[in-house]
User: Fold Alpha/beta hydrolase BEM46/Esterase/lipase/thioesterase from Aureobasidium pullulans.
Amino acid sequence: MATLLWGYLRVPIMFASGLGAVVSSGLYYYQNELIYPRNIPANARTDVPRPAQLGLDAEELSLPTPDGETLSAFLIKPGNVSKAKNVTFIMFHGNAGNIGHRLPIAKILANEFHCNVLMLEYRGYGLSTGNPDEKGIAKDSQTGLDFIRGRGDLKNTKIVIYGQSLGGAVGIDLAVKNKDHGDIAGVILENTFLSIKKMIPSVIPAAKYLTPLCHQVWPSEEMLPGITNIPILFLSGLQDEIVPPSHMKRLFDICRSEPKIWKEFPYGDHNNTVTEAGYFHYVQEFLDKYIV
Ligand SMILES: *[C@@H]1O[C@H](CO)[C@@H](O)[C@H](O)[C@H]1NC(C)=O
Ligand SMILES: *[C@@H]1O[C@H](CO)[C@@H](O)[C@H](O)[C@H]1NC(C)=O
Ligand SMILES: *[C@@H]1O[C@H](CO)[C@@H](O)[C@H](O)[C@H]1NC(C)=O
Assistant:
């Protein structure tokens, strides 16, 4: 089962072929289908691996959004209560698959690092209702954070935002909008991009004049400098074939928050950076030094 689930992590992220099709054929209205390939892998909308399959102590939740969607979420608790840390992760995944595919990551955070983990499903993904777009997903991430703030057992914990790929953009947006609240203790970003628009010229140079057609922005390059005084860990796979690693480097360079920590994986590609040696060691070091 564990191997199978790690296999699910290696889902194709459709930026390259997807955006190529969008801009070359001008299919403006199909952008969302291509930027948010929520049906990949096949059955990703119905087959969601469940925490119990990995022996995890978890609540399966349905969280209502202010605009009437219902989000599926898992709240994973530390396996050993007596070691529980005062930390809650909120996890945002990449643009394919569902939260169930990322359970092996949550298992490590909960059972080895003894943290709470909220795995939030975006609208239109997995068992959540609705259709994804930038505005909607931003409402979803806020719904997840507000849920943590409203729970007696979580509200006084240190919140760590953890985003992979598209989830990094979601996390940056959320951190900036909530920075004055004072409860976000850390941000972890893996293989994320400067903006969707900046993905286009690097992925398909000939299409650069068509970037104004792109209506999903996710402007992390503009937003990230708005985060201050929150420790940020950057995890960059140098073999990333989807998001050029230069995007992560640039985000690190323009980041004004301190401390900011850079860790790179010489053999990490877009899919497999999370399984590279050292990855969870760096996460643990970040937790021990800057969060707990
Ligand atoms: C990422 O995963 C997808 C789906 O398994 C695969 O097609 C693609 O080749 C992978 N990319 C790399 C560089 O391994
Ligand atoms: C849980 O942690 C406590 C304290 O470190 C330890 O004594 C106990 O053996 C652990 N229980 C399990 C089931 O690992
Ligand atoms: C947990 O962290 C919060 C936020 O930093 C803090 O206010 C609270 O006192 C901590 N609680 C414990 C039990 O350490």
The CA atoms of residues 79 and 111 lie 5 Å apart. The longest helix spans residues 134-150.
